[in-house]
C-alpha cells in the first residue's frame, strides 16, 4: 500500500504470513492509529518509511563505509534485513568477498 509499499502476505491456508503495517505499529508508538483502513494516509506512510530505514540503518553496524551502510539499508528496506544478513553470511564464507562492502561484494 502506498508510497512505502507496505504489504500484507498470506499463507496458502489463508492465515497471515506477515503484515508490515501491523509490525510497524507495534514497534513504533508514533504510528498508533495506522491500519489497512487508512493505509494510504501519507502522514503515516512517510513516517513509517523513515522509521523503517532508521531502524535498519542503526542495525547495520558492520558496513565498511557510509555508502555501503546506506546501500545495505536500502536493500534491507526492499528485501528485509534478514536477506542482507544472509548475503553477509554467504559473503563471509566466500574467498575474496568483503562482508562489510556492498558494491561488488554483497550486491
Secondary structure: number of strands: 2
pLDDT averaged over residues: 95
Q: Element order, helices and strands?
A: EEHHHHH
Helix content: 40-55%
Strand content: 5-15%
The number of domains is 2
- Strand order of the biggest β-sheet: 1-2
Low-confidence stretches: none
- Counted by DSSP, the helix tally is 5
Query: What is the distance, rounded to the nearest whole angstrom, between the alpha carbons of the first and last residues?
Result: 27 Å
Biggest pleated sheet: 2 strands, antiparallel
The 3D shape can be described as globular
**Which structural category fits the helices and strands?**
mainly alpha
**Radius of gyration, Cα only, in angstroms?**
16 Å
Amino acid at each position: 500500500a502506498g508510497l512505502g509499499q507496505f504489504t500484507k502476505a498470506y499463507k496458502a491456508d489463508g492465515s497471515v504470513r506477515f503484515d508490515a503495517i501491523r509490525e510497524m505499529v507495534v514497534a513504533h508508538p508514533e504510528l498508533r492509529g495506522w491500519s489497512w483502513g487508512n493505509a494510504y494516509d501519507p502522514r503515516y506512510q512517510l513516517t513509517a518509511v523513515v522509521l523503517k530505514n532508521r531502524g535498519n540503518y542503526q542495525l547495520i553496524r558492520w558496513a565498511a563505509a557510509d555508502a555501503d551502510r546506506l546501500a545495505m539499508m536500502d536493500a534491507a528496506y526492499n528485501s528485509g534485513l534478514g536477506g542482507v544478513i544472509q548475503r553477509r553470511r554467504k559473503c563471509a564464507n566466500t574467498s575474496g568477498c568483503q562482508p562489510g562492502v556492498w558494491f561488488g561484494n554483497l550486491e
